[in-house]
Amino acid sequence: MLVLGDAHASEPDRRETLLATYRTLEPSTVIQLGDLEHYDLPAPTWFVAGNNEDLDVIDALRAGETPSNVHNVTLFASSVAEIDGLRVGGLSGNYAPTKYGLPRDELVGERRRHFTREDVERAAALSEVDVFLTHEAPKGLLSYGYDPGCEHVNALLQAISPELCLVGHHHRHREAEIDGVRVVSLAPAWERTYTLDPDDLTLDSRPTSEGDPNGTAERSGP
Protein backbone atom coordinates (compact mmCIF):
# COMPACT_ATOMS: atom_id res chain seq x y z
CA MET A 1 0.00 0.00 0.00
CA LEU A 2 1.44 3.36 -1.05
CA VAL A 3 1.20 6.12 1.56
CA LEU A 4 1.73 9.77 0.67
CA GLY A 5 2.03 12.93 2.73
CA ASP A 6 0.89 16.36 1.63
CA ALA A 7 0.92 16.79 -2.16
CA HIS A 8 -0.04 20.45 -2.82
CA ALA A 9 -0.72 19.30 -6.37
CA SER A 10 -2.39 22.54 -7.42
CA GLU A 11 1.20 23.60 -8.17
CA PRO A 12 2.18 22.20 -11.60
CA ASP A 13 5.62 20.88 -10.58
CA ARG A 14 4.25 19.13 -7.52
CA ARG A 15 1.31 17.73 -9.49
CA GLU A 16 3.76 16.25 -12.00
CA THR A 17 5.84 14.76 -9.16
CA LEU A 18 2.68 13.22 -7.70
CA LEU A 19 1.57 11.72 -11.02
CA ALA A 20 5.12 10.52 -11.78
CA THR A 21 5.06 8.64 -8.47
CA TYR A 22 1.87 6.86 -9.52
CA ARG A 23 3.31 6.06 -12.96
CA THR A 24 6.60 4.75 -11.58
CA LEU A 25 5.33 2.74 -8.63
CA GLU A 26 2.03 1.58 -10.19
CA PRO A 27 0.30 1.18 -6.79
CA SER A 28 -2.90 -0.80 -6.48
CA THR A 29 -4.05 1.24 -3.46
CA VAL A 30 -2.98 4.59 -2.02
CA ILE A 31 -3.74 6.49 1.17
CA GLN A 32 -2.92 10.19 1.40
CA LEU A 33 -2.73 12.63 4.31
CA GLY A 34 -4.31 15.81 2.93
CA ASP A 35 -3.54 18.96 0.92
CA LEU A 36 -4.04 16.72 -2.11
CA GLU A 37 -5.45 19.44 -4.42
CA HIS A 38 -5.69 17.12 -7.45
CA TYR A 39 -8.51 14.59 -7.62
CA ASP A 40 -8.07 12.80 -10.95
CA LEU A 41 -5.66 10.00 -10.08
CA PRO A 42 -4.45 6.80 -11.80
CA ALA A 43 -5.12 4.42 -8.88
CA PRO A 44 -7.71 4.12 -6.09
CA THR A 45 -6.78 6.69 -3.43
CA TRP A 46 -8.33 7.25 -0.01
CA PHE A 47 -7.47 10.56 1.67
CA VAL A 48 -8.27 13.00 4.45
CA ALA A 49 -8.85 16.59 3.43
CA GLY A 50 -6.25 19.11 4.55
CA ASN A 51 -6.46 22.86 4.99
CA ASN A 52 -5.50 23.42 1.34
CA GLU A 53 -8.05 21.79 -0.95
CA ASP A 54 -10.68 22.61 -3.56
CA LEU A 55 -13.38 22.95 -0.94
CA ASP A 56 -16.22 22.63 -3.46
CA VAL A 57 -14.85 19.18 -4.35
CA ILE A 58 -14.48 18.30 -0.67
CA ASP A 59 -18.06 19.38 0.08
CA ALA A 60 -19.32 17.23 -2.80
CA LEU A 61 -17.37 14.21 -1.56
CA ARG A 62 -18.67 14.74 1.98
CA ALA A 63 -22.18 14.65 0.50
CA GLY A 64 -21.50 11.40 -1.34
CA GLU A 65 -21.34 13.06 -4.75
CA THR A 66 -18.58 12.65 -7.35
CA PRO A 67 -17.83 15.72 -9.51
CA SER A 68 -16.95 15.11 -13.16
CA ASN A 69 -13.29 16.01 -12.59
CA VAL A 70 -12.87 13.48 -9.76
CA HIS A 71 -11.66 9.93 -10.41
CA ASN A 72 -10.27 7.24 -8.12
CA VAL A 73 -10.50 9.26 -4.89
CA THR A 74 -12.48 8.57 -1.70
CA LEU A 75 -12.64 11.03 1.18
CA PHE A 76 -12.43 9.95 4.80
CA ALA A 77 -14.91 12.21 6.60
CA SER A 78 -14.98 10.68 10.10
CA SER A 79 -15.46 7.37 8.31
CA VAL A 80 -13.74 4.02 7.86
CA ALA A 81 -12.99 1.71 4.92
CA GLU A 82 -11.52 -1.74 4.42
CA ILE A 83 -8.28 -1.37 2.42
CA ASP A 84 -5.95 -4.30 1.73
CA GLY A 85 -7.33 -6.14 4.75
CA LEU A 86 -6.95 -3.16 7.11
CA ARG A 87 -9.66 -1.02 8.65
CA VAL A 88 -8.52 2.51 7.87
CA GLY A 89 -10.33 5.56 9.20
CA GLY A 90 -9.75 9.27 9.06
CA LEU A 91 -10.65 12.77 10.23
CA SER A 92 -10.64 15.46 7.55
CA GLY A 93 -9.78 19.10 8.08
CA ASN A 94 -7.73 21.17 10.49
CA TYR A 95 -8.50 22.78 13.85
CA ALA A 96 -9.75 26.31 14.47
CA PRO A 97 -10.79 26.96 18.09
CA THR A 98 -13.39 29.58 17.16
CA LYS A 99 -15.09 27.29 14.62
CA TYR A 100 -14.86 23.95 16.40
CA GLY A 101 -18.25 24.14 18.13
CA LEU A 102 -20.23 25.24 15.07
CA PRO A 103 -22.42 22.98 12.92
CA ARG A 104 -20.74 22.24 9.59
CA ASP A 105 -23.43 24.06 7.63
CA GLU A 106 -22.39 27.28 9.39
CA LEU A 107 -18.83 27.04 8.07
CA VAL A 108 -18.60 29.12 4.90
CA GLY A 109 -15.91 30.02 2.39
CA GLU A 110 -12.39 29.02 3.42
CA ARG A 111 -13.65 28.11 6.89
CA ARG A 112 -15.07 24.90 5.40
CA ARG A 113 -11.55 23.49 5.72
CA HIS A 114 -11.91 22.98 9.49
CA PHE A 115 -13.18 19.99 11.43
CA THR A 116 -15.94 20.44 13.99
CA ARG A 117 -16.93 18.84 17.28
CA GLU A 118 -19.53 16.80 15.37
CA ASP A 119 -16.80 15.48 13.05
CA VAL A 120 -14.66 14.46 16.02
CA GLU A 121 -17.57 12.79 17.80
CA ARG A 122 -18.40 10.73 14.70
CA ALA A 123 -14.76 9.71 14.36
CA ALA A 124 -14.59 8.73 18.04
CA ALA A 125 -17.44 6.27 17.46
CA LEU A 126 -15.48 4.32 14.82
CA SER A 127 -14.61 0.78 15.90
CA GLU A 128 -11.79 -1.68 15.27
CA VAL A 129 -9.63 0.86 13.42
CA ASP A 130 -6.17 -0.42 12.51
CA VAL A 131 -4.82 2.77 10.92
CA PHE A 132 -6.15 6.26 11.56
CA LEU A 133 -5.39 9.22 9.29
CA THR A 134 -5.47 12.86 10.31
CA HIS A 135 -4.15 16.06 8.81
CA GLU A 136 -3.82 17.68 12.22
CA ALA A 137 -1.19 16.33 14.64
CA PRO A 138 -1.80 15.26 18.22
CA LYS A 139 0.09 16.94 21.03
CA GLY A 140 3.40 15.30 21.87
CA LEU A 141 4.58 14.65 18.31
CA LEU A 142 6.18 17.89 17.09
CA SER A 143 7.80 20.99 18.54
CA TYR A 144 8.62 24.40 17.12
CA GLY A 145 9.54 25.80 20.51
CA TYR A 146 5.88 25.13 21.23
CA ASP A 147 3.68 22.09 20.62
CA PRO A 148 1.50 22.62 17.50
CA GLY A 149 -0.62 19.56 18.20
CA CYS A 150 -4.35 19.44 18.84
CA GLU A 151 -5.78 17.89 22.01
CA HIS A 152 -8.87 16.71 20.11
CA VAL A 153 -6.66 14.39 18.06
CA ASN A 154 -5.22 13.00 21.30
CA ALA A 155 -8.77 12.36 22.49
CA LEU A 156 -9.45 10.43 19.28
CA LEU A 157 -6.36 8.27 19.79
CA GLN A 158 -7.61 7.42 23.27
CA ALA A 159 -11.14 6.67 22.04
CA ILE A 160 -10.24 4.67 18.92
CA SER A 161 -6.91 3.15 20.03
CA PRO A 162 -5.63 2.35 16.49
CA GLU A 163 -2.42 0.44 15.96
CA LEU A 164 -1.01 3.30 13.89
CA CYS A 165 -1.87 6.96 13.32
CA LEU A 166 -0.50 8.75 10.25
CA VAL A 167 -0.33 12.56 10.21
CA GLY A 168 0.13 15.15 7.46
CA HIS A 169 0.27 18.97 7.46
CA HIS A 170 3.71 19.56 9.00
CA HIS A 171 5.90 18.42 6.08
CA ARG A 172 8.39 16.56 8.25
CA HIS A 173 8.98 12.98 9.34
CA ARG A 174 8.55 12.43 13.07
CA GLU A 175 7.62 9.37 15.12
CA ALA A 176 6.39 8.96 18.68
CA GLU A 177 4.25 6.76 20.87
CA ILE A 178 1.32 8.82 22.14
CA ASP A 179 -1.43 7.45 24.35
CA GLY A 180 -0.21 3.94 23.50
CA VAL A 181 -0.46 4.57 19.73
CA ARG A 182 2.42 4.65 17.26
CA VAL A 183 2.12 8.02 15.52
CA VAL A 184 4.08 9.01 12.41
CA SER A 185 4.12 12.43 10.80
CA LEU A 186 4.91 12.10 7.09
CA ALA A 187 7.25 14.10 4.92
CA PRO A 188 5.51 15.65 1.89
CA ALA A 189 4.98 13.60 -1.25
CA TRP A 190 7.55 15.57 -3.24
CA GLU A 191 10.24 14.57 -0.71
CA ARG A 192 9.40 10.99 0.30
CA THR A 193 7.04 8.14 -0.51
CA TYR A 194 6.03 5.49 2.01
CA THR A 195 4.91 1.88 1.69
CA LEU A 196 2.79 0.33 4.44
CA ASP A 197 2.91 -3.42 4.97
CA PRO A 198 -0.66 -4.48 5.90
CA ASP A 199 0.61 -7.52 7.79
CA ASP A 200 2.81 -5.80 10.38
CA LEU A 201 2.21 -2.08 9.72
CA THR A 202 5.87 -1.51 8.91
CA LEU A 203 6.52 1.68 6.95
CA ASP A 204 9.25 1.80 4.33
CA SER A 205 10.12 5.24 2.97
CA ARG A 206 12.10 6.39 -0.05
CA PRO A 207 13.17 9.85 -1.21
CA THR A 208 11.31 11.36 -4.12
CA SER A 209 13.62 14.37 -4.43
CA GLU A 210 14.62 15.02 -8.04
CA GLY A 211 11.68 12.87 -9.13
CA ASP A 212 13.12 9.51 -8.04
CA PRO A 213 10.53 7.55 -6.00
CA ASN A 214 12.83 4.49 -6.14
CA GLY A 215 15.59 5.98 -3.97
CA THR A 216 17.19 4.32 -0.93
CA ALA A 217 14.61 2.87 1.46
CA GLU A 218 14.34 3.51 5.18
CA ARG A 219 12.17 1.44 7.50
CA SER A 220 10.17 2.15 10.63
CA GLY A 221 7.87 -0.13 12.51
CA PRO A 222 6.45 -1.25 15.80
What are the segments in which pLDDT stays under 50 over at least 5 consecutive residues?
Answer: none
Characterize the main sheet: 7 strands, mixed
The CATH architecture term is 4-Layer Sandwich
Structural class category:
alpha/beta
Span of the ends, CA to CA = 17 Å
Q: Quick one: CATH superfamily?
A: Metallo-dependent phosphatases
| Oligomer state of the chains in this structure | single chain
Task: Throw out a few tags for this protein.
globular, 222 residues, single chain, six-stranded mixed sheet, Purple Acid Phosphatase, chain A, domain 2, alpha/beta, seven-stranded mixed sheet, 18% helix
Structure overview:
There is one protein chain. With 222 residues, the protein is an alpha/beta fold. The protein has one domain: 4-Layer Sandwich (Purple Acid Phosphatase, chain A, domain 2), CATH 3.60.21.10. It has four helices and 13 strands. It has helices spanning 12-25, 55-62, 117-124, 151-160; strands at 2-4, 30-32, 40-47, 71-75, 79-83, 86-91, 131-134, 164-167, 174-178, 181-185, 192-196, 203-207, 218-220. The strands form two sheets. Strands 4-3-2-1-11-12-13 form a seven-stranded mixed beta sheet. The chain has a six-stranded mixed beta sheet with strand order 5-6-7-8-10-9, covered by helices on one side. A hairpin with a 6-residue loop joins strand 11 and strand 12 (203-207). It is globular. The chain starts with a strand and ends with a strand. The mean pLDDT is 94.
